[in-house]
Amino acid sequence: MKRIKNIIAIIGITNAFILTPLSSYAGTYTNGETSGSIAVTAVVSSTYSITLPAELQLTPAENDITAYSGSYEVGVKANLLDNEKITVIPVDSFTMTDGIHDVTASIEQPVQTWRNSISDPSSEVEANYTEYIYTTGTISAILTNAGSYSGMASFVFAKETD
After folding, report:
1. What's the predicted TM-score (pTM) here?
2. Between residues 113 and 12, which one has the greater pLDDT?
């Protein structure tokens, strides 16, 4: 019997927390009134996430064995206000080395901006909050000396307001 009282007490306490309103009462309705209202609001914050490949292998061109390049995809998934945009901007160049030779690699990524409404399709893509929207970039380097080259391509991310 004591166990049943404890369960009833717990249920009573739980119901008291569930039924407690989260805000103050807007009005009191009495007998005879047939309708009422509640002001409802919500704040949805802007969010974004970005995907980049962890690694990229450069390969030689068919007609020039010193011209190495590789393509990568960068993806953005974003829920933005109409005056916001996400930018993913690669550095223009970086150094690749084999420990002996330093070589400059360059990055080209024509599309660097994601927004809700695009004004320039050559440099912007439309953002989507349910799936990643991808664009392609290319990293290239002229490698004339034999060796195993490596380097780190860097990107700067930003959420900006127009």
Report:
1. 0.74
2. 113
d(CA 27, CA 110): 57
User: The tokens of 115 are what?
Assistant: 């927004």
Classified as helix, coil or strand, 149 is coil
Q: What is the widest separation between alpha-carbon atoms in the chain?
A: 91
Determine the Cα–Cα distance for residues 103 and 97; give it in Å rounded to an integer.
Answer: 6
Q: Where do the domains of the chain lie?
A: 47-161
What confidence tens digit (pLDDT) does each residue in 14-28 have?
444 444 455 566 577
Q: Which residue has the tokens 């660097």?
A: 112
45 vs 31, residue with greater confidence: 45
Q: Which two tokens stand for residue 76?
A: 């953005």
**CATH number belonging to domain 47-161:** 2.60.40
pLDDT at 36: 83
